[in-house]
Design brief:
3 copies of one chain form a homotrimer. Chain A folds into 3 domains: 87 residues, 3-Layer(aba) Sandwich (Udp-n-acetylmuramoylalanyl-d-glutamate--2,6- Diaminopimelate Ligase, Chain: A, domain 1), CATH 3.40.1390; 197 residues, 3 Solenoid (UDP N-Acetylglucosamine Acyltransferase, domain 1); 32 residues. In chain A, strands 8-11-14-17-20-25-28-31-34-37 form a 10-stranded parallel sheet, with no helix packed on it. A 10-stranded parallel sheet of chain A has the order 10-13-16-19-24-27-30-33-36-38, with no helix packed on it. The longest helix of chain A has 16 residues. Helix content of chain A is 16%, strand content 29%. The first copy, chain A, is of the alpha/beta class. Strand 39 of chain A pairs antiparallel with strand 38 of chain C.
């Protein structure tokens, strides 16, 4: 794919400074870009590379224009502009309307002719595969599942019974959607299974990272709303609901029946207890421990970062002595009063 | 499936209040249940919904009987009763005694005729698949593995060489049982592999959640005892042993050679160091950090939950100054003595 | 496989004490070893079992020779020696030069005749599979991927487009290499995808544990250097680089663009923030929280281990009162000055 800077500027709503007929066919960092690449400055830390960059063009905001020694396209948000240009030059795979000879579709799978079904795929009964869906090698789509228009499932993904996935989902390898939630009841010392009779409903434009798991609901459904973006190895328990456009980084665990609002941002490694309500717009920094509901938007954190191990040992001991420390202060205060 | 309240009461050992001939075929929450559904009250938080529920019947303990305006079945533990009723109305899948045409079984696999083998399954040499086992699409059963009567493996599961799984296991997608433990020895700066020659032995009635991994032992076996219930994305290292009826929530990691007792309950996100002994009946709340053995049953916790980020910053700094704080108190104490 | 102690001693550079013609064909712990097994003492905790062991021979260092009542091979590092002996007696699987009839290789896959391709494997276009590679059942190798000589991929692994894997890799089930990194840009409240155009490059002699995920780079590549050993369920984000011979235990998460040095050792459950530099030789104990770069080698820790829940509650409250505690000390100090 080759585009002139004029074409790109039109696509992203920017203004060319330099030669609008200059053509690019690649993207690269400021340091590595050559004459047919377009680059960008989104982080002021890399400003020093702007002047010396050999890029064919750079995407910048107007404040750094005087540092540029090549062609530029001036935009409001260079990172968003870069994302759009990269999608233009490197569009995602599209369906080739084929079914691999090793795939197995149940006779009553309602699979649109424009879908692409990969090698060793299994698709169960009463399933719906909509237009332009791509289902990559090794995926298992169980009975009753529905996958919406334009969704792309890469490889070795499991979509369990009756799960509903909206339009334009991007789902990465190893993802499991709709396995049983962790429902057990203690019958005189022995755990018995509580059947998980709800499902999972996933909205439109959702992305789900590799090896993430989303459990089906116990009675009602687990819900992932439109525009939610999930990174790798996230665990979402039964009956969790996640509001629109919330983003969650890798290795987060969310326990059962917790409701996460819209436009939240959850840092990697965070653990959120069950039956909580997290308000819209809440942000957690990485490795947060969330045990109570949060009623208003804001940024929240927990955890004490590393220190040299010898010092860590001492601080843990001091922490455990906080009670006696407090008592000693009380004692001093009572002396002071005398 | 349709059952009368009389039939259900007999099945669960309860007592009908109202019309014993009333029939139900579904389960639902108090709020959503209709006339042919049975519901339950297991959490007093939802007591307010009892009176207004349109359920055909409710499972309750006798203390709330006067709040009920529909049929009721009085039981000792409504949640256990609910689990039993849900299993009655929605029994798990049973084997259809078929082998999918795309499955591949090694000639010397000892596979019972009543088992069901799904699409694109691979089963290796010297394997045993017992009566009524279900092996879902995409599963890989390596050489020498044995799977006990009535066990159900859903999809895309890997059971490695010589692993032994007991009766009535329920194993969810993406689980890996018997991959090599993390055994390395440092040979003058270069890590060399220590062969992992043990296996994994899993007892009866064990459930294993999606994408959980259980490593094979280095020399002896890794052991998961009868009745253990594991949630999703748990990591169990080589030579761990887990006692009967212990339950472990999602995202827990247990390092090598640690022994967990019976009837333990381990909260989500907990990390347990290697070579420890955890007594029977120990409970850890979510995100616990366990670095020492625990000799008696009890409830244990760690971690400081989130606070607004600005305050968190300040508290971390104060934590790191605990030493000087202690010194200042000492100083005051010595002054006070003068 | 059967070897005399003389043969073994020669292989590992040790010295036989006792009968050099004694033959062994197995390995076992001191407690379980019989006359045809060889055992070892690597941890002084087990010294008490040395005298009573029925092993055919033991691998020891010379300091414990007088405790031994059977044949011995004296070596400098008994654990390294054990690893070498175990590899000798139980060599890893080797390729059987066969392609399973259910495997699907794209016509232009450059697959060496000595490779072994398992059941239901899919290999895409423009791929290279080198000599003696083993690709186990259910693996998916996407277009353009290259797998180096002698590498072994067990089962249900996904290697995404253009990923490069070096020689002698050992990759366990469920691993995903080269899924898209988590790249999103906020376009006026809506997240848009940033195409992930880099790849993953994995060096020689790398081991990767079950269900670990390694994302492809955004523009440049994610890099795992020679000799790196990764345990299970590790998440490595886009553009992370990991230096040679670094070892990482299970459940670790490393956020985007962080660089980890050589010869590091990272304990299980550790979370490392993005855009950091971790020096060579750094060690983190388990469950560490790493939010800043570390410039010199050393051992670092964080986290407060569990305590009984009632006490934990009190300590958390005291922690949150550290500010008022400090104020009270200030107050006392100002009184003391008067």
């Amino acid at each position: 794919m080759v585009f002139s800077l004029a074409e790109i500027a039109e696509h992203i709503g920017g203004k060319v400074q330099g030669d609008p007929q200059h053509e690019v066919n690649g993207v690269a960092t400021l340091l590595k870009a050559g004459g047919t690449d377009i680059s960008f400055l989104a982080n002021s830390k890399y400003k020093k590379y702007l002047t010396e960059s050999s890029a064919g063009a750079v995407l910048i905001d107007e404040t750094v224009l005087d540092l540029v020694s090549t062609n530029a396209i001036i935009v409001q948000d260079p990172y968003v502009a870069y994302a759009k240009v990269a999608n233009l030059l490197f569009p995602p795979d599209i369906s080739d309307n084929s079914t691999h000879p090793t795939a197995w579709l149940s006779p009553d799978c309602d699979c649109h002719a424009s879908a692409s079904i990969g090698a060793h795929v299994y698709i169960g009964k009463d399933t719906q595969i909509a237009e332009r869906v791509i289902i990559g090698p090794g995926c298992v789509i169980e009975d009753g599942a529905k996958i919406g228009t334009g969704s792309r499932l890469s490889a070795n993904i499991t979509v369990c019974k009756n799960v509903v996935i909206g339009k334009n989902a991007i789902i990465h390898p190893g993802v499991v959607i709709g396995a049983d939630g962790f429902g057990i009841a203690n019958d005189q010392g022995k755990w018995i299974k509580v059947p998980q009779l709800g499902s999972v409903v996933i909205g439109d434009d959702v992305e789900i990272g590799a090896n993430t798991t989303i459990d089906r609901g116990a009675l009602d459904d687990t819900v992932i709303s439109n525009g939610v973006k999930l990174d790798n190895q996230i665990q979402i328990a039964h009956n969790v609901t996640i509001g629109e456009h919330t983003v969650i980084a890798g290795c987060v665990g969310i326990a059962g029946s917790t409701h996460i609002g819209k436009y939240c941002a959850i840092g990697g490694g965070t653990a959120i207890a069950g039956h909580l309500n997290i308000a819209d717009g809440v942000q957690f920094t990485g490795m947060s421990m969330v045990t109570k509901s949060i009623k208003k938007s804001g940024v929240f954190s927990s955890g004490i970062p590393v220190e040299p191990t010898a010092q860590w040992h001492k601080n843990v001991i001091r922490y455990r002595k906080l009670e006696s420390l407090t008592d000693r202060i009380k004692q001093l205060e009572s002396l002071a009063k005398d």
